[in-house]
Amino acid sequence: MGRSPLIDRRTLLLAGACSVCPAAARAATDAGAKRVAFLFSGSATESAVFLEAFKAGMRDLGWIEGRNIEYRPEHAEGQVQRMDALATRIVSERPDVIVAGTPQTT
User: Fold this and answer.
1) What is the reported pTM?
2) Three-class SS of residue 46?
3) Which of 13, 37, 39, 101 could form a disulfide with 95 if both were Cys (CB 3.0 to 4.6 A apart)?
4) Which class for 37: exposed (0-12), middle (13-18), buried (19 or more C-beta within 10 A)?
5) Is the pLDDT of residue 87 over 50?
6) Where on the phi/psi map is residue 40: left (φ > 0), alpha (ψ -120 to 50), or beta?
7) Is the pLDDT of residue 71 over 90?
8) H or E stretch including 55?
9) Is the separation of the CB atoms in 69 and 28 below 8 Å?
10) Helix 5-20 vs helix 44-60: angle between axes, to the nearest 10 degrees?
């Protein structure tokens, strides 16, 4: 009771992203690190809390950065006109999962 909408949204995003990965979790160390790309409309400073919470949740599920998962955040720094170029770059790198930071980013 009394949880903020931001925490609920983070929990939902984490749960959604993690639900994509369970089948791959068993073979992650054999198949190499999985890549998770993030697209944020704001700055690295603004998204730091979300990103660290996401990483902590993934660690709890056995996804260890540098061992079986790699994170690649991209930030538009509040410049909406950069979003298309960043999204194009992310897709061209072919990550295993793409996480959008906000509805605007999606």
Assistant:
1) 0.69
2) helix
3) 37
4) buried
5) yes
6) beta
7) yes
8) helix 44-60
9) yes
10) 50
